[in-house]
Amino acid sequence: PVTSGRDHIFLKFTVPKGKVADIMRIINFLQTKFDKINITIDVTNGSISDDDYEKKVKEALKQLGIEVDEK
Questions:
Q1: Would you tell me which of 11, 14, 30, 61 could form a disulfide with 66, CB atoms 3.0–4.6 Å apart?
Q2: Over 90: is that where the pLDDT of 3 sits?
Q3: Whether pLDDT at 4 is above 90
Q4: 34-66 pLDDT, tens digit each
Q5: C-alpha closest to that of 7 among 39, 33, 40
Q6: Burial, 11: exposed, middle or buried (Cβ in 10 Å; 0-12, 13-18, 19+)?
Q7: What is the pTM (predicted TM-score) of this model?
Q8: Residue 2 pLDDT greater than 90, yes or no
């Protein structure tokens, strides 16, 4: 534990196209400092078929053991 600093961080931003891997490096670093990371994904300005969403997104998260709260 850190004696001074932050015990909670909330950041909200738009990820520039092509920069997801860079954001993942930051998340990986934060995971070394915090026990829990909550991620919200809000995607716009495009589309995905229901089939792709079910098979490629939800199924992949399920296989990772990640519970999803769809609102």
A1: 61
A2: no
A3: no
A4: 999 999 999 999 999 999 999 999 999 999 999
A5: 33
A6: exposed
A7: 0.80
A8: no
* CA–CA dist 28, 34 (Å, integer): 10
Joined tokens for residue 50: 């229901």
Rounded Cα–Cα distance for residues 63 and 59 (Å): 6
Q: How far apart are CA 46 and CA 33, in angstroms?
A: 34
Q: Residue 21 has which token pair?
A: 């891997």
Position 51: which residue type? Answer: D
Rg of the chain on CA atoms, in Å? 15
